[in-house]
Each structure stands twice: as C-alpha cells, then as structure tokens.
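REQUEST ID: PR-0412
SUBMITTED BY: lab tech R.K.
PRIORITY: routine
TASK: structure prediction, single protein chain
INPUT:
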Amino acid sequence: MVIYFSLILIAIQLIGVYFFDWLGNYYEQDFDEKLEKQAALLASSSLAEILDQKPADRSERSKEIENLVQQLFILDKGTDTVQVVDSDGIVLSTSSTKNRNVIGQKNVRVTHALQSFTTDKQFRVDPATGYRMKLLIRPIKDDDGQAVGAVYIEASMEEMYATIRRISKNLIRITLLALGLTALLGVVLARTIANPVKEITRQATAMAEGDFDRQVDVKSGDEIGRLAAAFNHLAERLREALSQNEEEKEKLESVLANMSDGVLATDGKGRVIVRNRRAEEILDREISLGEPLEEVLPLPDPLPLPLAEETQTHLEQNAENKEEHSVIRITFTPIKRHGHEMVGLIAVLKDVTEEAKLDRQRKEFVANVSHELRTPLTTIKSYLESLEDGAIGDPELASRFLRVTLQEAERMNRLINDLLLLSRLDAKETRFHKQAVDLKEMLEEVADRFSVPCEKKGIRIGLQVAGPLPRVYVDRDQIDQVLDNLVSNAVKFTPEGGSITIRARRQRDGMAEVSVSDTGIGIPKKDLGRIFERFYRVDKARSRQMGGTGLGLSIAREIVLAHGGDIGIESEYRRGTTVTFTLPPCEPEVIR
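STATUS: complete
OUTPUT:
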C-alpha cells in the first residue's frame, strides 16, 4: 500500500508542478496580451495627431488627451494607471486620480522606449501597497515613424496572482482529497490482497508444522482466488502423497518385521537409520537408531566406506561356546545417488549356523564314510596280497586270512546296508508295513533274543512293564531293528557284572513309552547333544574295536520319527545310559 500510495503521490506532484507552471504562464501571457491590446488601442488612436500638434494651451490638450484615454481605457481603473507622455518624456495625462501631481513631470521609465522606438516591459513593486506592478511603454509614432510620445501603462499583478492562488488552493484541496481517497482505496486493495495471502500463509505454516487437513476459502476468481485454489489442490495432493507414503511405510515395516533375514540400513556416514526385529534377534541385542554400524556389527576387519560394490562377509558369535556359537552371513549393498555417490548402505543378515553345521556334518559324514569303507578294504587287500604272495600254501594260515577277509566284507556290507537305509529314510522312500502289534510280546522276544549274549558277558537283562500296555501301530521289523540297535549298544558298553533293563509304560496321552537302560560306561555331557549324529562316536577307537558302524542311533532315531514318535537319551558318565522312545497306540483314528 505504501508503494502504491507513493506512486500516486509522485504522479500528482508531477502533474501539480506541471499544472502550476502552465497556469502561471497562462495568466501571465493573458495579462501581457491585455496590456498590449490596451496599449495598441491607445497608440493607434488619434493621440499621434494630438501629440504632433503644438497647441497654444497645454491644459486644453491635456484635457483632450485625458478624455480620449478615459474613453479607450479598459483596464481596472482602481489599480491600473495609464499615462501619456510626449517625446521628451513629460507626462501629459494620467488616469490616476490620486497622482495628478505627476502631470508635467518627466517619466524617466519611458526614455528607453522613446529612443529605441520599441515597446518596453518592466516590473516594479509599489512601495505603498507592496503590490507587484507590470509596466508597459509603447511609443506613439506619427506618419513618418517618428516617436511623438508614448503610452505608459502601469498594471497591478496581484489580482492575477490571487486568482492563481485560489486555483492552486482548490487544486491542493482536490489533490489532498484524491490522496485520501487513494489511501482509503489502497488500504481496501491491500487488505483485499493481503488478507487472502495471510490466510494462505497461516494455513501453509500450519501444514509445515504437520497439520495437513487445511483448506483456504476461495472468494474470487482472480489471481488470489486461483492461488487459493492452487493451494487447496496442493494440500489435497500432499495429503494423498502422505497417505500413500504412510501405506508404503507400513508395508515396508510389515515386510521388514516378517522377514526371516535381518536388515540394517545406514546413512552415508554409516549410522543406522532402519533396522528390523529379526536383526536384533540374530545379533541378540537391541539396536538404537543413529548407532554406528561398526558397533552394531563387530566385524574382524573394518568395512571400508564408501563401499564401491556389493560385498559379503561372515560374523561368528560366541565362538568359545559351542552350544551358543552362531555364524551370520552379512551382505553389504551400497545405495548410490546418480550411479556413483554412495548415500547409504543396506546390510542383510542371515543366520547360517545350521547351514554351517550341516556343511560340517556333511564333510564329517563324507570323511567318516570314506574312512569306514577304507579300513575294511585295506584289511581285505592286505590279506589277499598275503595269500597271493604264498600264504595260500599254508592251509591253516590261508583259512585264517580268508576268515578275516569275510568278516571285513561282512562289515562293509552292514555299513552299506545302513547307509542305504538312512538314504531311503531321508528321502521318505522307505515303505512301512504298519500293523497292530502287541508291544509287550515284542519286548519279551527282544529280551529273550539278547539273553544268551548277556549271559556270556555276565550281564543281567530284565523287562519291566508298568500296567497294561496299548497295542501299537508300527512296522514290527523296523521297530525290532530299533530295539536291537539300542540293546546291542547297551550290551557293548556295559561291563561284566552290569545290568540292562527294558521298561515300558503307557503315557497319559495314550502313547507307549519304551526305554532301554544300562549300567555301562555312560556318555559325557558334552557329547549328548551330538550322539544321534551319523558316525559320531564318543570313543572312536573303542567303538571300531567293537565292530559298530556308528549309524545305529541315527537309524533308530529316523525310524521312530517316521512312526510319529520321539526319542531321547539321558546319561551319566560312568554310571549308565537310558534311551527312551515313544510309539503311537493302535487306535482307529491313528490307523486312518
């Protein structure tokens, strides 16, 4: 509004200056024209003839001139004065009644006009009134062009200046009124423009503080109205974008929360900005936003930042504790802007402890199979070479060598059969011929079957059945193999004078529970967790001397699990071992 008002004021000032200058020039020019017309009227009359004559009586000539002047005088007789002078500058007549005493005196102001024969204009200030007076002296010429006198006109300019002042005052009043109206209109215009802009600014400030449910009233169709409509459209689009962003954020959070892998995201400085619950579970610690990545992931070698390309590394935790030891595979992927500047990092964490364990078991399994097969093959080869070298000539020695060779071949055959059985069990290719079996009868047969080996070794074997047992729905041959493996292990590792007890009972859930307990050498606590692994032996040398393949417990476990049961082991070193497994009862719903 100030700028607008200043522009109007400057424009009015420029117009006023120009108008006042023009007005002054106009009135001065009009005043001059009136004086010149008066002077021309007097000079063109018969004054030249009167002045050219030399009358005897000067007073009569003066009266004649005065009468003529009174007839031709058209100016203000109250303030203006007309004098007629002769060629010598002597005043012959005057229109002023107050200054009649100037007649006969010389008027020095007409000298220049009489000498130059041209009209002369002068200014003076009346000392009595202080008025500004304009003087016009026009020479009166005869027929020969000689100056015979002059007309001296003295006119007051105060009326002209008063008129100019009145007009100026009126103009100033009009200007002030116009400026007042302009200011009023400026305020109205400013409010018309500023109020909607202030409203938009207030709403925009509220949106900047997080309140996006804002609308501006559109009160016109001009630029301000279109601005308000554009603001409302922007607010609506912003709400839609934020809604979509929230949906995408919720989807991302849901995906991150339900991922099986841990995810960490960092900024360009390596500080965590996103993490999911799985990452905290894998690392077994809480992760704070803003925490440096090197503190979250204590890598053996520091990660070089900025990262040029995707890289992968492994992190081991609790390496000194085998039970809590874990291996984490971490894949680092850089987030780049414009294809070259790294602005962040994504770290994907995957717990590969089981994979590492399976890989170790696979390697151990291959090594054990190779070793188990190579040992009898080496023995067979060495004995056959001895026979080839001449031992066959000694019937007794050849017979012993062949017997050992047959034993090792049988050992290889048992190992291969066990491996094939495990392979079929793993591939779910083994067919079980399940039927209802009397569990007590089956256990009695097992106890009777091992009674002779136990008697030879001086071991007591007994069967304890607690209450009536349910009929079980199993493949009898497979369960016999389980029982044979368990009891034979008990016989192998129970010293002379020990005992083996086979127990059976019905559980509360209807499952049949069978356990084989011995008073043998037992198993150290550190080996219990791996006792069902294939080829795992607590004492490898002693186990091989006893002719085992190291697969008995693994086979027993797979068969029991395939029947829908469970198997476990309890042992105390040098005190004995108990292996317990369960079998489903023979009920209609189980058979179906």
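NOTES: The CA atoms of residues 369 and 535 lie 8 Å apart.
REVIEWED BY: pending
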